[in-house]
Amino acid sequence: MKLDVQTLDAKKAGSVELSDDVFALEPRADILHRMVTYQLAKRRAGTHKTKGRSEISGTTKKMYKQKGTGGARHGNKKVPQFRGGGKAFGPVVRDHATGLNKKIRHLALKHALSTKAQAGSLIVLDEAKLAEPKTKTVKDAFAKLGLNKPLIIDGAELDQNFALAARNLPYTDVLPVQGINVYDVLRCETLVLTKSAVEALEARFA
């Protein structure tokens, strides 16, 4: 598929031929769902923890004699049914990450890119560079381009002036091409790729 290349001033700077193998697939919701679930599970801290019966500090002495009290039979006070006792089957520190084949992860990214391309939410920029880190300059450029809640993907190295200027804008993310991921692509309203990002993505999936 062919797409116009634009500058930050919203002027045309030629066109680029996008690979059909990366940007023109028929999106599959099942693959995208698996990838998003994988990403969100992987980033969970898993540091939730409660103390079990064996971790409570206290005596293990039997509370009272087995018979003759008229009450229920009990051992020590660290059991879950008493206040201050351990938690039964509470959460433990663990890794929530699940496995997903690299083939599926690569395919999911292709489908995410294709989703944006088919929805008309993909813009290709000539370059994302500024002479000085001015947030107003980026804001005005986004207004000219009609960008709202964009995700900007640049080449392997970000232009620091552009990155510094854009980080002050709400709902705006700027990532190098190696940081592109399915969740952020689907979450943004407009995906913005620079020409160097397009070349890197097509080389990655070649």
UniProtKB/TrEMBL annotation:
<dbReference type="GO" id="GO:0003735">
    <property type="term" value="F:structural constituent of ribosome"/>
</dbReference>
<protein>
    <recommendedName>
        <fullName>Large ribosomal subunit protein uL4</fullName>
    </recommendedName>
</protein>
<dbReference type="Pfam" id="PF00573">
    <property type="entry name" value="Ribosomal_L4"/>
</dbReference>
<dbReference type="GO" id="GO:0005840">
    <property type="term" value="C:ribosome"/>
</dbReference>
<feature type="region of interest" description="Disordered">
    <location>
        <begin position="44"/>
        <end position="85"/>
    </location>
</feature>
<dbReference type="InterPro" id="IPR023574">
    <property type="entry name" value="Ribosomal_uL4_dom_sf"/>
</dbReference>
<dbReference type="GO" id="GO:0006412">
    <property type="term" value="P:translation"/>
</dbReference>
<dbReference type="InterPro" id="IPR013005">
    <property type="entry name" value="Ribosomal_uL4-like"/>
</dbReference>
<dbReference type="InterPro" id="IPR002136">
    <property type="entry name" value="Ribosomal_uL4"/>
</dbReference>
<keyword id="KW-0699">rRNA-binding</keyword>
<comment type="function">
    <text>Forms part of the polypeptide exit tunnel.</text>
</comment>
<comment type="similarity">
    <text>Belongs to the universal ribosomal protein uL4 family.</text>
</comment>
<comment type="function">
    <text>One of the primary rRNA binding proteins, this protein initially binds near the 5'-end of the 23S rRNA. It is important during the early stages of 50S assembly. It makes multiple contacts with different domains of the 23S rRNA in the assembled 50S subunit and ribosome.</text>
</comment>
<keyword id="KW-0694">RNA-binding</keyword>
<dbReference type="GO" id="GO:0019843">
    <property type="term" value="F:rRNA binding"/>
</dbReference>
<keyword id="KW-0689">Ribosomal protein</keyword>
<keyword id="KW-0687">Ribonucleoprotein</keyword>
<dbReference type="GO" id="GO:1990904">
    <property type="term" value="C:ribonucleoprotein complex"/>
</dbReference>
<comment type="subunit">
    <text>Part of the 50S ribosomal subunit.</text>
</comment>
